[in-house]
Amino acid sequence: MTHSHGSWSENFKKSTGFHGEVNVNKRKVLISQERLKILMNGKLQQCSSLQALSDNIPSTKMRNNPLISLMQQCIWDSIATGSVPQDWRIANVVPIFKKGSKSEPGNYRPVSLTSIVGKIFEGFLRDVILDYLNENNCLTPYQHGFMRNRSCQTNLISFYEEVSYRLDHVSTQTSTPEASSGGGGFCPRPDISFLQSIPGILIMVELVLGLIVWALIADTKYYYVAAFGWVLFVAIFFWALTLVLFLLFFLQLHKRISSVPWPLTVFICHAAAFVLYITAFITCAASVKLEDPRGMDYNKRAAASFFACLVMIAYGGSAFFSFGDWRGTNSNSASGQA
């Protein structure tokens, strides 16, 4: 069987509908002849005589160097055009006898024989994709399917080890003297998931921005204007209250005080902070005057008004989430851990 490159190129363009010159960036898809020989030998050792006949090419002739070069160009052209030839997608279904009477159709198992060239092309795509994912750390260590040196057995072994470790860890904790005595030695443990939740992020924003409002107002001559004294009081009071709530939920201390209705308590605190920060923002913004005769306090008070508005919005969001948790409609709020 002899095929020239020109005849294959014409058939390729006719079957794929591609017209024009093929331009492949060989630096992006490295398909060397050495790699092609290795992959071809592996595939040809697995193929049967029927499978070789599905391509109309004897498997012994596919090992020749001219065909390897032609196959290399075929793969480059297919990648460049984004099309797969129709011959690579056709499968021949062959019945394989299992057992029993050969006259019974149910005793045969259908086997789909696809093109060997198509399988080699799929092997290249798989290798390139896996190399990219491994080089860029796109796969988690828990991925076992379609991975080299991994299988269902390794997945089951890792799962068994993880379950055994957690069971041993739990049994060790429950058998300690502190746990068996009823809780005399409670040790606070930070809850990292709380920091990653929306209510936890809002509380951290309230702490940072509230501290900025506090510092800006405290650095001015606030005692000359009663309105700024009120703003300073609101900023200090709710910053301290928010810090207490943050420590309670981050260290999971609220679980030790089960008698307190935490969803309702958190909602009341955030709602009160939202309402009072509205008054603080309006008061601070209304008291800022450009023709202030007492120096450079204008910029600081204007910035304090801006950050007070941001804190007000943050407390409004916290009040919304805590209200949803109190009513039982938001399971992702901060006090949902109580």
TrEMBL record:
The keyword Cell membrane applies. Keywords: Cell membrane, Membrane, Transmembrane, Transmembrane helix. It is found in: Apical cell membrane; Myelin membrane. InterPro entries: MAL (IPR013295), Marvel (IPR008253), MARVEL-CKLF_proteins (IPR050578). Its main location: membrane. Residues 194-327 form the MARVEL domain. The chain crosses the membrane at residues 198-217, 223-250, 262-282, 302-323. It is a multi-pass membrane protein. Belongs to the MAL family. Forms oligomers. PANTHER family: MARVEL-CONTAINING POTENTIAL LIPID RAFT-ASSOCIATED PROTEIN, PLASMOLIPIN. This is Plasmolipin. It comes from Ranitomeya imitator (mimic poison frog). The lineage of its organism: Eukaryota, Metazoa, Chordata, Craniata, Vertebrata.
